[in-house]
Amino acid sequence: MHVLASNPIDPGVFAGIGFGFMILALVIYLGLIGLMLWIGYLIMRTAVKNGVILAMRETGAQITPRPGYSAPPAPPAGWHPQGG
């Protein structure tokens, strides 16, 4: 006599799906950590750059241009930033 199984679906299939979801969750988790580190780096880089520029302006130091870039042209004689 043949005995019918109470569960016609193999439980191994669900174990494989669970393993796949664990890998997907790990990839998403590590991707979010990487994204947070990258955005934090961009924010810190901008803050440091702006802080250095502000400190150089306050001390009157010259801001040297990057290599490969030319300095902006000098303003014409008699030109004042306030317009007067």
Describe the structure.
There is one protein chain. By secondary structure, the protein is an all-alpha fold. It is built from one helix and no strands. The protein has one helix at residues 11-59. The longest helix has 49 residues, at 11-59. The protein is rod-shaped and about 105 Å long. It starts with 10 loop residues before the first helix and ends in a 25-residue tail after the last helix. The mean pLDDT is 81.
Task: Describe this protein with a few key phrases.
0% strand; 58% helix; single chain; 84 residues; 1 helix
Percent range of helical residues: 55-70%
Mean pLDDT value: 81
What's the shape? Answer: rod-shaped
How many separate helices? Answer: 1
- H/E topology pattern: H
Q: How far is it from the N-terminal to the C-terminal residue, by CA? A: 108 Å
What does the main sheet amount to? none
Q: Which class of secondary structure composition applies to the elements? A: mainly alpha
Low-confidence stretches: none
Strand portion = under 5%
Q: How many strand units?
A: 0
Radius of gyration, CA atoms, in whole angstroms:
31 Å
